[in-house]
Amino acid sequence: MKRLISAICLLFFLLPLPAQETYQKEIFISSRGDTLQYRLLQPENMKKSEKYPLVLFLHGAGERGNDNERQLTHGGQMFLNPVNREKYPAFVLAPQCPETGYWAYSARPESFLPNEMPLNEPITPIFQTVKDLLDTYLAMPQVDKSRIYIVGLSMGGMGTFDMAVRFPEIFAAVPICGTVNVARLKAAKSVKFRIFHGDADNVVTPEGSRAAYRTLKKAGADVEYIEFPGCNHGSWNPAFNYPDFMSWLFSQKK
To answer: What residues does the Dienelactone hydrolase domain cover (predicted)?
Structure first.
């Protein structure tokens, strides 16, 4: 009997977890031969006849590496919440930036003040590979191209601004504790933005998010700015717990 129980337990352990319960580890190789590690979450109970939104999730500088795991440290569980999975079935792409990279910029900017942020840098090789990865999913018939979202925190918040500027026809954008040279934002006035920041952030101070909000608002963009009193750099925690974070995100359409 003990052997039978042990065999059953071993069999149960060896059975693969259902895909809908976890992110799949994936590796993308671009046509240029560049490699990008990423995690993929697919819609739960996906039906071939239906189209689903897609979220591109950009982590912060602390989650860089090559383990294809750390990029899910902040925010990854939000999309695994069974209630969210049921209410908001979606593709979620979570690429991991290499340790030596910095998403939107060739290196960590010397200053995060908006008027001192880079202005005319070409797209970085890592971000070009991220865009190539995204394009492979945009070509899938199961993806709803009118509901493509980009969410990023800190370094990823800067990347969110960058992607929205470069490809405004694709995204609705949620930059969290990011910053940007606001002179770039005229190219993104058609993008729907929801910007989050902590007013006590001493790493990426809120000037960039405040200036982005003012600039986009003046340009007639659909933009909302939410600032958390007393919150330092970890404003992604209250942002992800904001009451209508998911419902706002998934209600946006191009």
So the answer is: 127-236
Contacts of 192 (CB under 8 A, 6+ apart): 172, 173, 221, 222, 223, 252
Distance of CA 100 to the CA centre of its chain: 19
Least-confidence region, from 16-25, 55-64, 135-144, 157-166: 16-25
**121 near 181, Cβ under 8 Å?**
no
Q: Quote the mean pLDDT of the chain.
A: 92
pLDDT at 48: 85
Contact present, 66 and 96 (Cβ < 8 Å): yes
Q: Which residue has the tokens 């370094």?
A: 155
Confidence at residue 21, expressed as pLDDT on a 0 to 100 scale: 59
CB–CB of 186/219 below 8 Å?
yes
Query: What angle separates helix 125-138 from helix 155-166, to the nearest 10 degrees?
Result: 60
Angstrom distance (rounded) from CA 37 to CA 253? 28
For the chain, the helix, strand and coil percentages under 3-state DSSP, each to the nearest 5: 35, 20, 45
Residue 90: DSSP 8-state: -
Instruction: Tell me how far apart the alpha carbons of residues 224 and 233 are, in angstroms, rounded to a whole number.
Output: 19
What DSSP string runs through 185-216? Answer: GGGGTTS-EEEEEETT-SSS-THHHHHHHHHH
Distances (CA, A) of 87 to 39, 43, 152, 184, 247: 21, 10, 22, 35, 9
Mean pLDDT of 33-46: 95
Q: What is the pTM of this model?
A: 0.90
pLDDT for residue 57 is more than 90: yes
Question: For residues 27 and 133, is the Cβ–Cβ distance under 8 A?
Answer: no
Q: What is the pLDDT of residues 83-94, one digit of tens each?
A: 999 999 999 999
